[in-house]
What we know:
With 350 residues, this protein is an alpha/beta fold. It has 14 helices and 11 strands. It has helices at 3-8, 25-33, 47-60, 78-95, 113-122, 136-144, 156-164, 188-191, 198-208, 222-230, 252-263, 287-292, 305-317, 341-347, and strands at residues 14-16, 38-41, 64-69, 126-130, 148-153, 169-173, 179-180, 213-216, 235-238, 270-273, 281-284.
Amino acid sequence: MSALAAMLGTRHALIQAPMAGTQGPKLAIACSSAGALGSIPAAAVSLETLAAHLAHMQSSALPYNVNFFCHQPTPIDEAQHRAYQAVLAPFYAEFGIDAARIAPASGREPFSEAACALIEQFRPQVVSFHFGLPTDALLARVRATGAQVLSSATTLAEALWLQARGVDAVIAQGNEAGGHRGVFLENWRTAWPKQPGTLALVAQCAHSLRIPVIAAGGISDARSVRAALALGAAGVQVGSAFLLAHEADTSPVHRAALRSSAAHPEEHQTALTNLFTGRPARGIVNRVMREIGPINWAAPEFAQATAAIAPLRSAAEAQSSGDFSPLWCGQNIAGCRETDAASIVSSLIV
Length: 350
Ligand SMILES: Cc1cc2nc3c(=O)[nH]c(=O)nc-3n(C[C@H](O)[C@H](O)[C@H](O)COP(=O)(O)O)c2cc1C
């Protein structure tokens, strides 16, 4: 067993990436049962639901990771909301949606006192963060539970910053990764075109850090795991490969897009987009990304963009269309298959 696996409490140095909105305890338990570390994403659920998910995990007696966003929310910007609505106006007209009735909203809540209290109650083996770290006081409370603390870095500078603040391991998230960039030291508006690929980032981090580096982004099968380990990673975090797993809660339109990509990998196209939440995340290119461009400066800050686009998403999904849905997915879907999660875990063991 590797030192990282011992730290995670697992047989393998492999983390099933937390994937907000597409999975919960079913996938996490299947992955942890198979010897990887299953993850529970907290970003898209209420605290009540999170508590239920943690109770479910606890009853399995398996090790698991709980993941939180720790962005700094910005005040609601009504003017920016209306500006983004103006960009979306032709689509509202097409679906007969009255834009004036859609109020701005803050979207997602970051890690909080109340969330920290759940960590103190359930004491998971691992707690991971995206978009930096919480306040020193909250981080100290998490540490006091005995949890191993991980966080994502999208540059070597972020990785060194996290190491200096005492995280136990860094998740080096390369540009290929599906979902949100964990970028936090620089404003994403200038940082996003500069994010290194997994190959460059993992090699740089492994060379410069004294704590374990976990590679994330574009790792989808045994070959890509071997490549990450050859670069000096102590383990890997894999997301997109699990999106078609039987135990994932991936939505029907998202599954349809992934199935089509898996069947025609030569047509699989992803891009970084801020249209759905206000921060750049990698997803399969769909109609709204094509028609207004994947990055649009009128979209409000994270996660206020969601309010304006959500009614279009609902209307399109009611017609089984993913034209306005966030179809988060990474660049490499070689290992994304419709099978049970345990088979996917075993395909990633080297
Ligand atoms: C559908 C989806 C949702 C994601 N949600 C989260 C999340 O809630 N928290 C997080 O830290 N990372 C999230 N990520 C990013 C993953 O942690 C990880 O960086 C990424 O999946 C690795 O790249 P891969 O998709 O190529 O395996 C998400 C990724 C995907 C594909």
